[in-house]
Design a protein that fits this description.
Blueprint lengths: L2 E7 L5 E7 L3 H10 L3 E7 L25 H16 L4 H9 L6 H14 L4 H5 L8 H13 L2 H58 L5 H35 L2 H11 L5 H22 L4 H11 L3 H15 L5 H6 L5 H13 L2 H56 L3
Antiparallel strand pairs: 1-2, 1-3
Helix pairs in contact: 2-3, 2-7, 3-4, 6-7, 7-8, 7-10, 7-15, 8-15, 10-11, 10-15, 11-12, 14-15
């Protein structure tokens, strides 16, 4: 029967180390719980090897970090908030969630959080172990809830926040699906015409002889280039895309790319509406849960997703340090619109800044919906027209050649 090493705490909170024999890990966990112990860790002990025999095993090491998916983070937060609201202690909540079977990243992360909390660490400190899963916004909200004694309410606020963020992201992704399909099929159609249809006409025109129209010659040359050097063009495009993507990961590249997004027609409205809604929603969530304004601005700056707007928030934060309000420093720049700063100023005057931020988030959520509808309304006919122009150029070029050759033959 397998032997499992365990670390647990008894009813008095004392730490226990030992081993237990059981058929499987679940049975070992049940045995410890029947004895009144709370397991902190439970691992199967290595089976002893026969003397004189050594087994050679490959040990694969990967640099993959444990990380939850956004959906799993939201589910974990929701369940933790519900169990805390029902009266469970945090240690018992994490222990209950950690009892689930499986070796997924979510199970391992929850087990580690449980071990840290049971050993005396605060949940906000334990979350720092997994920065790729729990961003600074999440940690600050949890710390604020711990300090004020309303952790369940803070987690509930996080759930609402991430649900709204995922909803906004889903709107943008959904809006891009149809244009991407149209563009993809358009490219495949053009490639098929240039590699299969045009070469057949080229051989016919060569047999008939004569001088072809300029448009036809251009089309045939383009087809020849694609057939003979298409692989090279594809490699160059892929290589250029990789280099460009790496450059965008640099500080200068991100700033350039984000600045361009704020200048392109249609796209600019979507980026601004999404960023301003995120700004207001995040700041409102943090302030409502007791996070100081300066710390809240730092978190918003780190999570806004646009370097140009983040730089403006940083400059405004420095002015707030001097004792001024939030609306004034934001209005001093050229990034935040007057509507947003005016609504902030009203919230500061009435003493209801979270309420004003909530209205701002709702306002720009509506703007995001309208901007997405405008983009889909504009981009769909533009893509269809672009594909139609390319296909029309191919058809007209071939027909011009056919008309010229047949008229020369007296047909």
């Amino acid at each position: 029967m397998p032997t499992f090493k365990y670390i647990a705490r008894n009813a008095d909170g004392q730490r226990l180390d030992g081993t237990v024999e059981a058929a499987n890990r679940r049975s070992a966990m049940q045995l410890l719980q029947k004895e009144g112990h709370m397991p902190l860790s439970l691992e199967q002990a290595a089976a002893p090897q026969a003397a004189g025999r050594k087994r050679f095993r490959f040990k694969w090491k990967t640099g993959t970090k444990l990380r939850m998916k956004p959906h799993d983070v939201l589910l974990f937060t929701r369940e933790t908030a519900d169990l805390l609201a029902s009266g469970m202690t945090l240690g018992r909540v994490l222990h209950t969630l950690a009892q689930r079977t499986g070796t997924s990243a979510q199970a391992q992360i929850v087990q580690r959080l449980r071990d840290e909390v049971v050993q005396g660490s605060a949940l906000s400190d334990a979350l720092k172990i997994y920065p790729d899963t729990f961003p600074q916004l999440y940690i600050s909200m949890v710390r604020a809830g711990e300090a004020s004694g309303v952790l369940a309410e803070s987690l509930e606020g996080l759930c609402h926040h991430y649900e709204r963020v995922q909803e906004a992201r889903g709107k943008v992704i959904t809006a891009m699906i149809y244009p991407a399909i149209v563009l993809g099929f358009g490219l495949l159609t053009v490639i098929f015409i240039m590699t299969f249809i045009v070469p057949r006409f080229t051989s016919i025109f060569d047999d008939l002889g004569g001088t072809l129209p300029l448009a036809t010659r251009i089309l045939m040359n383009m087809s020849t280039v694609i057939i003979n050097y298409g692989w090279l063009i594809l490699l160059l495009l892929l290589g250029g895309g990789v280099v460009f993507r790496k450059w965008l990961r640099t500080e200068a590249g991100r700033f350039w790319w984000h600045a361009r997004q704020l200048k392109w027609p249609v796209i600019r409205n979507i980026v601004q509406a999404n960023a301003f809604a995120h700004f207001a929603r995040t700041l409102e969530t943090l302030i409502r849960n007791g996070v100081p304004i300066l710390r809240a601005l730092v978190i918003v700056q780190e999570t806004i997703g646009n370097q140009v707007i983040a730089q403006e928030i940083s400059a405004a934060r420095e002015r707030v340090t001097d004792g001024s309000s939030v609306s004034g420093p934001l209005a001093a720049g050229n990034v935040f619109p007057a509507l947003l700063t005016d609504m902030l100023a009203i919230g500061e005057e009435t003493g209801d800044l979270p309420g004003a931020l909530q209205h701002i988030a709702r306002r720009y959520d509506d703007d995001l919906d309208r901007s997405i509808k405008i983009m889909t309304t504009v981009i769909e006919p533009v893509l269809i027209l672009g594909v139609a122009v390319i296909v029309g150029f191919v058809v007209i070029s071939l027909l011009l050649a056919v008309f010229d050759l047949t008229s020369g033959l007296g047909v």
